[in-house]
Design a protein that fits this description.
324 residues, alpha+beta, 4 domains
Length: 324
Amino acid sequence: MKIEALYENHLTSLLLIKHHTIFLSLLLVLFSATGYDSYAMAAINGNQHTITVQYANGTAPAYVIFPDNNQTYVISQRHSWSEDSLSRYNLQSYTIDNGPIVPIARESSGNFTLDVSSDANHVVVFFAKPQFEVTIHGIDNATFVPSSPTQDNWFDDSTDIQFMVPYVISSDKQDTRLQLDGWSLDNSDINVISKQESGSFQSGTIHMSSMHTVDLEYKVQYYIKVISSFGRALGTGWYNSGTIVDASVIPGNDIIENHVFLGWQGSTIGNQNQMSAETLADSPKVLVANWSVDYTNISMGIIGVIAVLVLLVIYQKRKMPPKM
């Protein structure tokens, strides 16, 4: 049994030596063709230390560095690199010579640098996460929940996210705004959103197993103001561009003064002399109900009061006894 074990160990050693020899021979051929045959010979002879850079799960091709011995070599590794037009890899951590895994601060761009001593052969393994992009059309300031680990619009594979956008976006133009009306995911049917005057809309869950496109539908709205100095004006509010707006006024109770409706001041559709009118919401507008005041009732009242007073005076005079 001992002899068989020794034979197996010896055979294993021979196979390892054979594979190592083949690997070194390939190195010699490769680097001789590229002008680095002296580095290859030094590595074969054991005089040249190497730094082998590998990528877990084959996220990028491995390569070998031949630094000057007993020096510090700086490895520069991109934080993100593309696999194809639909995804990318983002640097997450590394390990040296099968040591502990060291986390790397997640960044979307730029390079991560790692100092490695060339006092011996080393193997550096980088770990990266596949990521997919979410593109949102219709707004520039969407918020993601949870936020991207790289502080942009790229998210790790197999994570679930949501986005938040304001219901209303103010405009630089007076009495003009944008109102969220609906949204779609990856060119699907529009999901209608109930209108809100404030706050933020939060989407349903989006699973990140591929890239996604979100289309937001915001409608331009104008503020239409209906004013009346008498009675109650109806129709003031925000309206989508192109909407036909109904404006009207309910007269108040005339007791002394008598108010007569003269018509609307402002852009209206059709007859302006009716208490109900229409206008097109193609810009901010103000509609004013004009009235005139008829003082006939006041005049009749004054005449009536005077008449009563006269009658009282006559009555009092008739009641007085004649003078002796």
